[in-house]
Amino acid sequence: MSANGQPAVAPPPTTGALPRSGEPLGPASGLSQAEAVQRLARYGPNAIPAERSRLWRQVGAKVSGPVPLLLEAAVILELAAGRETEAAIVAVLAVFNGVLSFLQEGRAREALALLRSRLAVQARVLRDGRWQLVDADRLVPGDLVHVRVGDIVPADLVAVDGAASVDQSVVTGESADIDVSPGSSLYTGSIVRRGEATGEVRATGTHTYFGRTAELMRTAKTSSHLEETIFRIVWSLLIMDGALVVAILAYGLVTHMPAADLLPFVLILVVATVPVALPATFTLATSLGALELARAEVLALAAAASDEATQDPIDLAIIARSDEGGGIDLGTRVAFLPFDP
């Protein structure tokens, strides 16, 4: 923690990136438009770049995971045993699972892109000696930005004037609002709860406190609970069938059974280990669930819980979407209970 009660934050990288902490960035009257354009070219846009994956990588991920590899192994084993029909069935299920999962992820990406476009944030910036609204992704270090009640802080700022109270729980995890005075830091993504303040931009984009956190989350690879459950089932099947294979081989050795007679039983057990229909079943179930939610009263309930008076970006996006649908009958509100995280 710093002396003013703010969380201690490591300074942004300085190698070809942002000026050092404490270095003057811009005049008290703000930057000129020409200077802002130069700094934008130097520092880049105030945005966290979306991770874009090439099509061939997306397709490769669908055929190289643990479960797809098991399905492909099953196809090879079936062909080796001369069971072309069974091999074709397993192959069709594997392709069906991959295509369905690919399409669902594509729809999810489109929905996120639409949400980002609706949640475009604008900032009040002092440029050429006058205050104006600009898109938040055009902010550069040295800009003077004014924030007030309800605003989302668009970049990492150092307050130079005013007094405010901000909720930065999304950024730092602190549940209590933080009082801001000249010299205090405001972090990207924080929400102004009371007062208003003017601050100088110190970091933008991936160099912000939020940006560095987002980068760590992007590079961290974790498995979902559903994936972990499926893998546990697969490993359990492998252990059980492995024990059965050992038992059959032992029986064959004791009874001197020919290897040609043992092989079909071993192949049946190995193929049975692979949960052929399990991936397709889970993918289909989640897809149908998503479609059912899309057709249900979720949008109406979300619109009923949204309030245009707050000017919250999420609320505004939901309200705009419900209006596009010809308007949804939300009934009459009889009581109001503010959201409490």
Secondary-structure blueprint:
Elements: H1 33-43, H2 55-64, H3 66-80, H4 84-118, E1 122-127, E2 130-135, E3 144-148, E4 156-167, H5 169-172, E5 178-180, E6 185-186, E7 191-203, H6 209-219, H7 225-255, H8 259-273, H9 277-295, H10 298-304, H11 313-324
Helix pairs in contact: 2-4, 3-4, 4-9, 7-8, 10-11
Q: Structural class, please?
A: alpha+beta
State the helicity in percent bands: 40-55%
Task: Give unreliable regions as ranges.
Answer: 1-24
Largest sheet: 7 strands, antiparallel
The overall pLDDT, averaged over residues, is: 75
**Rg (CA only):** 29 Å
Form type: elongated
What is the H/E string?
HHHHEEEEHEEEHHHHHH
User: How many DSSP E strands?
Assistant: 7
Beta-strand fraction estimate: 5-15%
* Measured distance between first and last alpha carbons: 24 Å
How many helical stretches? 11
